């Protein structure tokens, strides 16, 4: 038995798992890479997490935090082995302050459980990644997760007021946006577990809007739907969500959910507006007018809360629905300025055609955040290679259009070699300075975000996700 | 001796910082100079490196709802450029024709509409910083969702120029609301708590909700015994009308009879209020900002006033009902002169801090008054010192101005 396992067991007893059959569930996330950790620790509280971090650090073992393992980029994979710390037990709401609209939660709390817990108070937790039924707040913080409604409400970073982390020496440190000094809260959000281990999060709750309206427009193709989105935003109208699904996605979604999306349309645009009752009709009319100007074939609004929920459930379940009809698929996550949407959609279509890969588009159009979904069969080596190359080309196209290589999923293990396509060595050197403060030994989630020194500059072929 | 340099572009700016670092010359970054009261004073022999020449709008396609501007661009220019396209960025800093984008961000300015629109850090989507090693470092970009490397913009914002200079900032912009209305209501004796209680029940929330006492530079007319309520409603004309009706009825129920509506000149009234946050009184004042929870802001203001009872100071205050801030302007009315004035203000600040250990100095009438800016030491101070060492190893930038002697 290795020294680190012995020390962990002595200190933490049955919070430590070391049997291969136990460790198998900590070897992977929703990316294809996997590796067994040396041990997994499932702390009962921050104190146990701190002990695990201190021991791992003293033994020179990598420390990999893990929420629900829903990340698509390998961010939770222990690529160098080491100690996985799972937050499955730190899943409670620790404090709820409705008057001041804030909550303190354990990082293992499931995103949707927070909004559910405050149902009836008129408040909600705004960030709503499609994975919100299973993904955790801690994981959302690590990747600065988005979701359809961040168009108006902002991403996770805009809703995290403070947090508590374990530093490399196992000390528990609390930071808040209201503290004097540097905004370390902001630095931790989106840092993908590379700065420290987060053990609680202070989040902002928002007031539920008085009225919401969800409408669906049908378009002949994705290009015209994208042009409509660019025009809506360009007209200074910011609904709370503007989502596009193409025909491939809508067909899959309808086959499973029967939510009422038009099946024969080349693309559907899902629009949600929110605010006061007095503004709903005028708000809807302004958007519907632009949609029609850009070729909308139909426009329909959900007439009940049940219908609204069904449309959203289907939208958020799109990836799963594709999984039922495709042998395998690979989701890309990239972002462009909103005026570039029609151009990038055209380019993605072109890339997919050249590589002879079916592509589905389901994306947060209002934010310019794309999720092209490439369908392939992993048993066919040629198709796997084509997916790898097409994915890289899509990222290049986004960068060339002034965009970036991740809108809401993070860089993780998958895209780290592409980071140097977005940022030059001076930009990356500044980021390394921040990392040096917290993790000079490179033990917090190694191999994530930053290009590996050895192959700096060359692009490592990502391994596509299995559907 | 203070000398000022004005690099002509961002590369030259980074070179100027590098030259100071090489020579070991203390330096500080100068924007419009409006928020120099925040932080402890720079060393007298520091070189000021001004962003004055970096004033352009770098990238603006209104249809993207994003804008990229140079760090020295002033807020008035930013606002005018955006307003011409029906947009805005709610930074809400005082003296916009002097205040620069870079300075406002570096100072971590917190405006009173942030409960509705987010803090300045939440509006920024990317930055370029000039660093003392002579490099320019970008973070974020021109897209509204971005998880690509560390969000260093957050670290620069509020760093008071101790890590580098923000030579470019990219913002997400918002569509300007059709209507912007200010409502002002003098609060009669013992009406404040009830008024605030009733305001909390409003279906349409104000974007800014202040209870002001004193600050006659912002509210130059008769004020209520219990202070004066200053609220802003924004949105469609229908929304603002409905909000006003609800406000009148809520205030009426709280015994507040008179509500003055300002439509024409409402934005000017709001701008005057923002200016008051840092306006000094005749060389005899110091302004503190305490951050707290909205539910405790009235008690916090009362505690600060109580702590000051035995001191020879008068207090103007702003209680921010939505954000929880209390702004306290302490001033000494009378004939005492320099040394004694300074000692009185220092004692008053110290007393006010006993009620609000996290209070920060926002503005001072006398520069270099020697009164410490920062309240409670943050728990993560050690990591902050290390961050400073990594970005500015010889500590030439704004030495001693930031919290904990950074």
Described by strand count, sense and barrel closure, the largest sheet of chain A is: 7 strands, antiparallel
Mean pLDDT of chain A: 94
Which residues of chain B sit in consecutive blocks of at least 5 with pLDDT less than 50?
none
Q: What fraction of residues of chain A sit in β-strands?
A: 15-25%
Number of strands of chain A: 20
Oligomer: heterodimer
Helix content of chain A: 25-40%
Question: What does this molecule look like?
Answer:
The complex is a heterodimer of chains A (467) and B (406). With 467 residues, chain A is α+β, with helices and mostly antiparallel strands. Chain A is built from 16 helices and 20 strands. In chain A, helix 1 runs antiparallel to helix 3, helix 8 packs across helix 10 and helix 9 crosses helix 12. The longest helix of chain A has 20 residues. Chain A starts with a helix and ends in a 29-residue tail after the last helix. Chain B is of the alpha+beta class and 406 residues long. In chain B, strands 14-11-13-12-16-17-15-18 form an eight-stranded antiparallel sheet, with helices on both faces. In chain B, strands 4-5-9-7-8 form a five-stranded antiparallel sheet. A three-stranded parallel sheet of chain B has the order 1-3-2, covered by helices on one side. The mean pLDDT of chain B is 95. The radius of gyration of chain B is 21 Å and the shape is globular. Chain B is built from twelve helices and 18 strands. In chain B, helix 10 packs across helix 11. In chain B, 29% of the residues lie in helices and 23% in strands. At the A-B interface, strand 9, helix 7, helix 8, helix 10 and helix 16 of A face strand 8, helix 6, strand 10, helix 8 and helix 12 of B.
């Amino acid at each position: 038995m290795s020294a680190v396992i012995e020390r962990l067991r002595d200190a933490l007893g049955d919070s430590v798992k070391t049997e291969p059959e136990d460790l198998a569930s900590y070897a992977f996330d929703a990316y294809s890479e996997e590796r067994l950790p040396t041990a997994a620790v499932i702390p009962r509280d921050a104190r146990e997490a701190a002990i695990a971090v201190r021991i791992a650090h003293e033994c020179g073992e990598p420390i990999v935090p893990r929420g629900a393992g829903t990340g698509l980029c390998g961010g939770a994979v222990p690529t160098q082995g080491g100690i996985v710390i799972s937050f499955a037990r730190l899943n409670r709401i620790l404090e709820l302050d409705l008057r001041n609209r804030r909550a303190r939660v354990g990082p293992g709390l499931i995103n949707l459980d927070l909004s559910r817990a405050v149902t009836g108070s008129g408040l909600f937790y705004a960030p709503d990644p499609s994975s919100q039924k299973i993904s955790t707040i801690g994981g959302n913080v690590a990747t600065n997760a988005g979701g359809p409604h961040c168009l108006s409400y902002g991403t996770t970073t805009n809703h995290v007021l403070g947090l508590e982390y374990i530093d490399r020496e196992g000390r528990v440190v609390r930071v808040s946006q209201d503290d004097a000094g540097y905004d370390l809260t902001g630095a931790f959000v989106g840092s993908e577990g590379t700065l420290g281990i987060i053990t609680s999060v202070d989040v902002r709750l928002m007031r539920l809007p008085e009225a919401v309206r969800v409408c669906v427009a049908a378009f002949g193709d994705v290009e015209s739907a994208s042009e409509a989105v660019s025009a809506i935003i360009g007209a200074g109208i910011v609904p709370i969500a503007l989502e596009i699904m193409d025909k491939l996605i809508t067909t899959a979604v309808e086959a499973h959910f029967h939510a009422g999306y038009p099946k024969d349309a080349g693309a559907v645009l899902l629009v949600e507006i929110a605010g006061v009752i007095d503004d709903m009709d005028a708000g809807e009319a302004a958007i519907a007018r632009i949609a029609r100007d850009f070729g909308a074939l139909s426009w329909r609004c959900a007439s009940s809360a049940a219908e609204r929920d069904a449309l959203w459930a289907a939208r958020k379940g799109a990836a799963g629905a594709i999984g039922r009809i495709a042998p395998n698929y690979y989701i890309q996550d990239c972002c462009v300025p909103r005026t570039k949407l029609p151009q990038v959609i055209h380019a993605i279509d072109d890339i997919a055609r050249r590589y002879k890969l079916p592509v589905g588009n389901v994306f947060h159009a209002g934010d310019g955040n794309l999720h092209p979904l490439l369908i392939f069969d992993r048993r066919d080596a040629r198709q796997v290679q084509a997916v790898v190359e097409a994915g890289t080309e899509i990222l290049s196209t986004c960068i060339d259009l002034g965009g970036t290589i991740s809108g809401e999923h993070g860089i993780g293990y998958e895209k780290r070699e592409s980071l140097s396509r977005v940022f030059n060595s001076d930009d990356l050197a500044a980021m390394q300075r921040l990392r040096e403060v917290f993790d000079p030994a490179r033990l917090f989630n190694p191999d994530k975000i930053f290009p590996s020194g050895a192959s700096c500059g060359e692009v490592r072929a990502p391994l596509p996700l299995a559907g | 001796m203070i000398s000022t340099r004005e690099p002509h572009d961002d590369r030259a700016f980074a070179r100027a910082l590098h030259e100071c670092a090489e020579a070991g010359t203390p330096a500080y970054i100068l924007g419009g100079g409006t928020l120099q009261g925040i932080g402890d004073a720079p060393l007298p022999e520091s070189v000021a490196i001004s962003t004055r020449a970096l004033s352009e709008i770098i990238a603006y396609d209104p249809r993207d709802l994003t804008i990229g501007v140079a760090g020295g661009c002033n807020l008035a220019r930013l606002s005018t450029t955006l307003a011409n396209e029906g947009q805005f960025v709610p930074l809400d800093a005082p003296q916009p024709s002097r205040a620069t984008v870079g300075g406002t961000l570096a100072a971590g300015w917190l405006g009173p509409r942030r409960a509705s629109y987010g803090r300045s850090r939440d509006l920024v989507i990317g930055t370029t910083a000039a660093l003392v090693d002579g490099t320019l470092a970008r973070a974020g970009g021109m897209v509204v969702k971005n998880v690509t490397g560390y969000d260093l913009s957050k670290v620069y914002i509020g760093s008071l120029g101790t890590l580098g200079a923000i030579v470019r900032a990219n913002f997400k912009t918002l569509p300007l609301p059709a209507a912007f209305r200010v409502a002002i209501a003098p609060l009669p004796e013992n009406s404040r708590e009830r008024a605030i209680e009733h305001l909390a029940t409003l279906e349409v929330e104000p974007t800014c909700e202040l209870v002001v006492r004193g600050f006659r530079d912002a509210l130059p007319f008769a004020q209520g015994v219990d202070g004066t309520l200053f609220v802003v409603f924004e949105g469609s004309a229908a929304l603002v009308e409905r909000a006003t009706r609800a406000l009148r009825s809520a205030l009426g129920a709280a015994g507040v009879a008179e509500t003055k509506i300002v439509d024409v000149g409402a934005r000017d009234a709001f701008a005057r209020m923002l200016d008051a946050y840092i306006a000094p009184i005749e060389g005899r004042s110091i302004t503190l900002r305490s951050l707290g929870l909205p539910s405790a802001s009235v008690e916090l203001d009362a505690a600060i006033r109580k702590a000051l009872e035995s001191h020879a100071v008068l207090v103007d205050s702003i209680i921010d009902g939505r954000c929880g801030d209390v702004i306290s302007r302490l001033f000494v009315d009378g004939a005492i002169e320099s040394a004694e004035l300074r000692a009185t203000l220092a004692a008053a600040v110290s007393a006010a801090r006993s009620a609000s250990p996290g209070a920060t100095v926002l503005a001072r009438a006398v520069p270099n008054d020697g009164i410490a800016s920062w309240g409670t030491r943050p728990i993560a101070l050690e990591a902050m010192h290390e961050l400073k060492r990594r970005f500015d190893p010889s500590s030439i930038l704004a030495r001693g101005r930031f919290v904990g002697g950074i």
